[in-house]
Amino acid sequence: MTTHITKADTFLGFPATKLRTMLTSWEKGRCEPHELSGLKSLNFTTGACAAFLGECFDRKFIVVGYPDGLDEPEDRRGPPILKLSDAGTAIAAASARKRAPKDKAAAALERLVANAERISRDKNALLLVDQIWVFGSFIDDTKQDVGDLDVVVTTRSNEKLKGLDLKARLAHLRKHYPGVVPEHVMFYYREEEWVKRMIYGTRRDPLVAPNSMHNLVGMHRPCRQVYDHGRGGRIAPEDHPHHPDSSERADYMKDRLVMPDLGGFPENFQFIPASVYMWPAEIVSGVPAVIGERALSPPDLARYGSRPLDGRDGMAAVLEGETGKALFHIGRTVEFTDDIWTYRLTIDAVHVPRGFAMSRWRLHEFTEMIGGLFNGDILRLADRRAKLGVYPEIVADLDFCEKSARFHELVDRMQIVTAEPWSSKRGETLPAEYRYAINLWWSGEMQFGYSGPADYDDCDWDESPVPRDAYEEWLSALGASSATPGSPFQP
């Protein structure tokens, strides 16, 4: 039943396990790029997190919808929510372990049955194992190995101790099983924790994947019973086309999760959507894209005139200050030639009230969002370059209109955050294999860069992420003997 991620699987050039970590954390409430960038297990900058979230939106791993069971229009109550699609859930629930031989799974099952027998002989056991069932690839003769061992273990009360109330049962555990259940476990979970430890051990074998009888009956799929307390405990394995209590697949059972293709890329390059910073109600309504505020008032919207507000090429950005709010327009363009890809993000001041004073905290939040889009777009461009098997220079330029350039605090902060791929100690923006021929420009002036193959000496190729043969073949296909990219800003 479990979906799997292998070591070879990547997403935007990083191990696919990073995507799994991000989606599980996203589902638990870390929903914005800057929140996810704080995860040590990711070790990402805000830009990398924005790129990952943007891909998840575009590939429908994260979708706008309603809570499970409220998908029909007549059942909907309250605003829509962002949630994982079935594809997103398949990634979040995926195992990164290698598939195991069936004899290893058989040994794990034997330990479970042996533990059940040991508990049945224990006169002090509060609960006894009633039945053990297995299903999935372990009982599929066409499979040579297993991703995990899908088991269902049910329990029953020990008739000799059935009359004890909760207080007496907890006292019984402390007396007869000292140290089995850690003291930090809340008292109402201690009996459940005791059962788990007695059946699966202090640390459950990672190969064992417990499930519930409710799900096994609902699946209506082949299964095998190996233990039955009512028939003396261990029994000869009995295969069934489905559980005896199951008549058909239950409506409450979702379709089996299928791991989506994590490779590939769209035919046309897409900027990270503004929706990674927007509320689901606004995404659904199709209002002009705005970050920094939920929606624009009609007078504020009118100030933008014909500027694009689709969330890709352009979006509104609101910066709250000490004395009102300033309106900006964020525009993005990209031009592709054979040897240079030129990306530009422009911050244009639309309306700044007289005497506007910036709030340091709001400025930090504002620039973190825009810088996340800038750096995330660089990652997406580098990923596209790698998947196409081409080696142009990527030029990323941060630009300001004359009015916005007067806000020196804004310019300084934006320069700090856009330099993160080269200077950040907070995490990675680009995987090592993508760190070549990418240059950062501020208003037409080069600042930082990763040298590219066109600049390599013979000794540089030894540590280059670019295969020399592939690069020279690409050059040959372009009809050039060498690449000498110039400034894309020269007239």
Detailed description of the structure:
This protein folds into three domains: 83 residues, Arc Repressor Mutant, subunit A, CATH 1.10.10; 141 residues, no CATH class; 205 residues, no CATH class. Helix 3 packs across helix 11 and helix 11 runs parallel beside helix 12. With 491 residues, it is α+β, with helices and mostly antiparallel strands. The strands form five sheets. It has a seven-stranded mixed β-sheet. The chain has a five-stranded mixed β-sheet with strand order 9-8-6-10-11. It has a two-stranded antiparallel ribbon with strand order 1-2. The protein is built from 14 helices and 18 strands. About 1% of the residues have low confidence.
Shape: elongated
Number of domains: 3
- What is the subunit arrangement here? single chain
The proportion of residues forming helix, as a percent range, comes to 25-40%
Look at the helices and sheets and give the structural class.
Answer: alpha+beta
| Radius of gyration, in angstroms, nearest whole number | 29 Å
The whole-number mean of residue pLDDT values reads 89
